[in-house]
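DM from R.C. (forwarded with permission)

"hey, sorry to bug you on a friday — could you get me a structure for this? deadline for the figure draft is monday and I only need the backbone to look sensible"
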Amino acid sequence: TPTEPSDPGTDEPPTDEPSEPPTQEPTDEPPDPGETPPPVIQLGDEGPEVVELQKRLLQLNWVYAGEAHGVYDEETRDAVERFQSAYGVQDDPPGVYGAATRKTLEANTTQP
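My reply, with the result:
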């Protein structure tokens, strides 16, 4: 005699509906242009980013004694290099205000 299956399942016909909602497919769209990383600032650069850098360096008192004039001159470069040395920043070239230096300086100062 034939045996009955131990789990007969359901008597309802299958449907075209997925059992779970589909996951969102990845897109090939580029990242939002508003999410560009901050610029790397170095000797010879000028502008508001340099002013902010200089104002942050001034907050530390001992690193930079110049003015926030917006020109990344040798005095600013030397201050950035002193800051990098004192805080152990090694992922940017000496005297260059890159992502690692920016992150460390911003963590140790307030928004000017």
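R.C.: lifesaver. The two ends are 88 Å apart (CA to CA).
me: no worries. The mean pLDDT is 84.
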